[in-house]
Amino acid sequence: MSFESQLENFLNDCKKLIVLGVGNELKSDDGVGPFIISKLKQENMENDSLLFIDAQTVPENFTGKIRKENPTHLIIVDACLMDSNPGDMRIVDKEDFADIGISTHSMSLSFFVKFLEKDSDLKIIFVGIEPKTMEWANAPTPKVQEAANNFIKTLKGIIL
User: What predicted TM-score, i.e. pTM, was given to this entire model?
Assistant: First the structure.
């Protein structure tokens, strides 16, 4: 199934969506999550049923806000080492979190997801984008920026 089909299926019964970008924007491709959130915010699409959060490297700091907003769906976007080509993008099952390299965060994203799912019906997916480098730089590499723009285009095509 294509990435677009998977995302469309996930968002099928969405009433309120939060897109959470995770990563360190000072480490090149690791900053793809915040890069995406910045681009989405520039589109002025946020409303009562759509929220974008730049969580940087501390997604756990936003658990209260996420619970308060009470979304039906959460998309977490981050750089992810998946043994594929730079810029490759895929939906990673939360059961597979332990088998992949999820960038540079203090709290395990699998623990973060379990915490958010506790006592809620929140549906969560993780969109991983393969980095080329996580060296110090203030922007993602061109291939990763292209993947980020493709994600944004796909998301907009589904929700607008």
Answer: 0.93
**CA contacts within 13 A on the Cβ side of 69:** 25
3-state secondary structure the chain: CCHHHHHHHHCCCCCCEEEEEECCCCEHHHHHHHHHHHHHHHCCCCECCEEEEEEECCHHHHHHHHHHHCCCEEEEEEEEECCCCCCCEEEECHHHHHHCEECCCCCCHHHHHHHHHCCCCCEEEEEEECCCCCCCECCCCHHHHHHHHHHHHHHHHHHC
Could you tell me which of 80, 68, 76, 69 has the C-alpha nearest to residue 30? 80
Per-residue model confidence as pLDDT tens digits over 63-72: 999 999 999 9
Residues 6+ apart with CB under 8 A from 22: 33, 34, 55, 56, 57, 59, 76, 77, 78, 103, 105, 109
The first and second tokens of residue 114, run together, are: 């379990």
Residues in the chain: 160
Spans in the chain with pLDDT lower than 50: 103, 106
